[in-house]
Amino acid sequence: MTTFHAAEVPGEAPPADSVHPRDSNVDTPTSIARLNDTIRGFVQNWGSVWVEGEITSWNNRGGHVFGRLKDVSADASIAFRVWSSTRQRMPADLAVGDHIVACVKPDYFSKTGDFSFTASAIRHVGLGDQLERLERLRAQLRREGLFDPARKKRLPFLPHRIGLITGENSDAEKDVRRNAELRWPHVRFRTRHVTVQGERCAPETVAALAALDADPEVDVIIIARGGGDPQTLMGFSDEKLVRAVAAASTPVVSAIGHENDHPLLDDVADLRASTPTDAAKRVVPDVAEQRAAIGQLRSRLTTRLTQRVTHDIAQLEQLRSRPVLRTPESLLTARAHEVYLLSSRGRDHVDRRLAAQQQRTAELRAALRALSPASTLARGYAIAHLADGTIIRDATAAPDGTPVTVTVESGRFAAISEGPLEGSTSPAGPADEPN
Fold first, then answer.
1. Which tens digit of pLDDT belongs to each residue from 231-263?
2. Which of 128, 261, 263, 410 would staple 236 via disulfide (CB 3.0–4.6 Å)?
3. What residue spans define the domains of the chain?
4. Are the CB atoms for 156 and 251 separated by under 8 Å?
5. 313-365, pLDDT tens digit by residue?
6. Fold assignment, 130-285
7. Third-level CATH fold of 31-125
8. Does 31-125 match 130-285 in CATH topology?
9. Which family does it belong to (predicted)?
10. So what's the pLDDT on residue 66?
11. Is residue 172 within 8 Å of residue 258, measured between CB atoms?
12. Of residues 235, 274, 279, the one with CA closest to residue 253
């Protein structure tokens, strides 16, 4: 490296800013700014390196991340930062405890003398292929409709018994039970303990789910775990487990990890709770809230009933105050005269019609009497007819010795014809009277 020195004045020490750090001594010291600039220039010549470690600190500040990365096999660590512009290109689920590899570039702040690293890429160790397969499976299940909100079952308002699948003596189990009992003291559980990470996680969880789903007393099932890095949560993205949850007839609540943890179980479950505590709060109603709600409903019901009864009493009093209800006989009195007039008119009408019909009947009776054969017989005429009933209209029809029946006004009698009389063949006139 070429070093340029300021012109030296005899008898005077050169300025500190002009002295290169490697040329400094007790008589000609260099400045702190020149030292920091030299170090910064040296550090900037370094390239980016990939390092492996465990995240021990992860703090978000205004979109930027400041953290520390610890060596997994030695007592060593570095500070790093992630600018907001590059944070979006990194996994969203990075958290303290994750085992990662990071591409970092050293940086030295000449103003403060602080040394740090800037990370431009971070990946989970060993998770690349698994996460890629997981995303492909997620897309396939979404196409099949397993994540469709329309197929998700509603949770019961107050479950008779809660099925709980979790690790034995785990904090998740304690959180679910404690918070559920605080909200509803008489809540009951049926618990199945399983391995919540590793190869045994998925098959044991599927078996526990099948047992609780077949139990008629279990109304809802909670699968709970206290969070973890994506590697430890892989069992809850197992395809057999996800399909078993989708096929279950009992509503299933997923309570795996925290907000940043997102296994496939969260997508297919009927309800996704952010934490085991959240699962207990969303499955069991709060008895205090329900009592308050019942009290409010009772108060509203009492108020409504009081208002209704008061209104009806006022309406009744208003009706009773009307004249027609104070003296109901006045209504009858007013109508009585009208009824009398109507009945009189009806009576007169009937009498007139009856008289007219009686006169008509008499006229018809007289006409009928005038046309009746009985009237003719009453005037002294008779009807003669042969034995077969034939009326004798011609004297020659009854020769001598013919039996004849004669009908008069009052009865009939038999006779024997002696034959026609002389001069009897001419018909009698209408004015002829019988002898």
1. 678 889 899 999 999 999 999 999 986 555 578
2. 263
3. 31-125, 130-285, 374-416
4. yes
5. 999 888 878 777 777 777 777 788 888 889 999 999 999 999 999 999 998 88
6. Rossmann fold (3.40.50)
7. OB fold (Dihydrolipoamide Acetyltransferase, E2P) (2.40.50)
8. no
9. Belongs to the XseA family.
10. 92
11. no
12. 279
**Cα(94)–Cα(70) distance, rounded to whole angstroms?**
15
CB 353 within 8 A of CB 406: no
Identity of the residue numbered 415: A
pLDDT score, position 9: 43
Closest by CA to 159, choosing from 254, 270, 248, 282, is 282
CA–CA dist 277, 255 (Å, integer): 8
**Gap between the terminal Cα atoms of the chain:** 187
Whole-angstrom Cα distance, residue 5 to residue 265? 69
One-letter amino acid identity for 213? D
Phi/psi zone of residue 405: left (φ > 0), alpha (ψ -120 to 50 degrees), beta? beta
Q: Residue 430's Cα: distance from chain center in Å? A: 105
Strand-pairing partners, residue 94, are none
